[in-house]
Amino acid sequence: MSIVITVTCGHLGRAAVEAVLDRSTDPAEVIAGARDLAKIIDHAARGVHTAVIDYDDPTTITPVYMFVLISGTALANRDRQHTEEIAAVAKAGAARIIYTSGLKADDTALSTAAMHLPTEDACVPAGCRSRSCAAAGTARTTAATSSPPFARPVPLSSTGDGVVASASRRNLAEIIAVVVTTEEHQGKT
Q1: Could you give the number of structural domains in the chain?
Q2: Which is nearest to 119 in space by CA: 146, 97, 142, 141?
Q3: Which domain holds residue 127?
Q4: Is 113 exposed, middle or buried (0-12, 13-18, 19+ CB in 10 A)?
Q5: CATH for 81
Q6: Per-residue pLDDT of the chain (189 residues; tens, 9 = 90+)
Q7: 124: in domain
Q8: Burial call 126-137: b when 16+ CB within 10 Å, e when fewer
């Protein structure tokens, strides 16, 4: 069984690799992906395979069992990039796709969550069992996308009128690790 985790040179991808390894996953089963392998040499030092994975080049996808798609940050190209990656992953024979989506992407007025819906929709025809690891976002993301704190008593959130349900990157990485290393979450959002 091989597990590909994308964007492992970034904070969440790097933390996800660590969290998967912390759950006693054999490092030889994990493939850390990034556009620049020099940025993820530390993963290789732990026995993790590394591979070039470029969202602008779906041919960089190789056959895998499980594919963790960390949401890209190139907003103007993200829908196309993710759709092409998902199609390539399905063609390569992946059984499961895990995507870091936005909380209630299909039922929110919050644009930062709703923008994940095209990727979630692309997972359906791919024929893979998919799971969206939806979270309200990290405290950093919430702060970056909300009004200045003095302008609103509570930052905008897909939690309605409640308090912001933020999580640390480490928390989100642990969620990814649980979904990746257990079977009970297959096909759920």
Answers
A1: 1
A2: 97
A3: 3-136+169-181
A4: buried
A5: 3.40.50.720
A6: 799 999 999 999 999 999 999 999 999 999 999 999 999 999 999 999 999 998 889 888 878 888 888 887 777 777 788 888 888 888 888 888 888 776 666 676 666 665 666 777 777 766 666 555 555 454 444 444 444 444 444 545 555 565 655 677 888 899 889 988 887 656 555
A7: yes
A8: bebbbbbbbbbb
Q: What does the block give as tokens for 90?
A: 């399905």
Distance CA 160, CA 16 (A): 28
Structure tokens at 188: 């759920």
**CA 178 to chain CA mean position, Å:** 13
Rounded to 5°, the CA angle 58-3-139 comes to 85
Helix, strand, coil: what percent of the chain each, to 5? 40, 15, 45
